Task: inverse folding
């Protein structure tokens, strides 16, 4: 196994935005929104790779429209590109935007890999990741000078991948997790590495309506074994995982209600060991940017408390 990437732990601040909505906007609109998020004070903007924009080109355009915040991939799939290509994209953006591009790399999910990329997923995600990182870190792909070492996190859920994230990057990005997972993840990766969970939220105080929006979101993820296996490790059972999720699971995965209630959930992750929480805002209109909700979230950044010292 290769040694850890030599890079400092990024200081992302307590709050970031995780957004798929930017992918369905014209790029000029996405850049304007990113610039506004930067001005609001968010520490990072996390962008996905699923079926829309290519993440390195997307990140470069968003970085060029902003001045301070980090742009992170949540996540770039190792099945979508060779290790040489992943490394080249990572190094290119790390050189062009020192300490502002954070590569999140992950093994993705079997239905996405085999359906979208027409590649065999295989049954050993951990071994696949180790082999891929070894090839990325072989040191033979890049010649241009970089002012600082580029930064990388791994998408991780289980204990082995979390441990690998601490060894082979600057930390872990977790997704579709309750607060209890954040506490377990902190224990698994140790005190120093970055831990950046995503928290999905619905700004609606109507419990029934909010859960309906949350269930529509959760159904696709509850069909992916990586997520359901992780929830089972935490003690969730068949009654919780079926039908779009039990009320108890829906409430644990998707925070809902007023700004104050949503902030309580964000703070709970920070208290459980997160360094940075990236918030994904769900709305009934997937084509519209949730600018009002993002502005509300920005207003509470100064009040958030970082994770307690140990």
Result:
């Amino acid at each position: 196994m290769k040694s850890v990437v030599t890079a400092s732990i990024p200081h992302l601040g307590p709050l970031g935005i995780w957004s798929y909505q930017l992918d369905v906007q014209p790029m000029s609109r996405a850049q304007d929104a990113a610039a506004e998020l930067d001005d609001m004070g968010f520490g990072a903007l996390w962008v996905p790779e699923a079926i829309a924009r290519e993440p390195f080109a997307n990140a470069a355009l968003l970085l060029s429209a902003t001045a301070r915040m980090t742009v992170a991939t949540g996540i770039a799939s190792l099945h979508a590109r060779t290790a040489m290509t992943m490394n080249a994209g990572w190094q290119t953006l790390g050189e062009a935007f020192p300490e502002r591009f954070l590569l999140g790399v992950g093994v993705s999910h079997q239905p996405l890999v085999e359906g979208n990329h027409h590649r065999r997923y295989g049954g050993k995600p951990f071994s696949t990741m180790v082999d891929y990182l070894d090839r990325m870190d072989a040191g033979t792909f890049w010649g241009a000078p970089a002012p600082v070492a580029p930064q990388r996190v791994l998408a991780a859920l289980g204990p082995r991948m979390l441990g690998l994230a601490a060894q082979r990057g600057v930390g872990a990005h977790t997704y579709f997790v309750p607060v209890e997972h954040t506490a377990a993840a902190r224990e698994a990766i140790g005190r120093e590495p970055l831990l950046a969970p995503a928290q999905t939220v619905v700004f609606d105080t109507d419990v029934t309506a909010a859960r309906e929006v949350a269930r529509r979101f959760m159904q696709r993820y509850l069909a992916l074994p990586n997520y359901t296996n992780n929830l089972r490790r935490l003690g969730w059972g068949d009654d919780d995982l079926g039908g779009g999720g039990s009320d108890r699971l829906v409430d644990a995965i998707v925070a809902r209600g007023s700004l104050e209630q949503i902030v309580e959930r964000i703070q709970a992750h920070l208290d459980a060991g997160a360094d940075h929480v990236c918030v994904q805002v769900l709305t009934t209109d997937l084509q519209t940017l949730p600018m009002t909700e993002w502005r509300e979230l920005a207003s509470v950044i100064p009040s958030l408390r970082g994770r307690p010292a140990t």
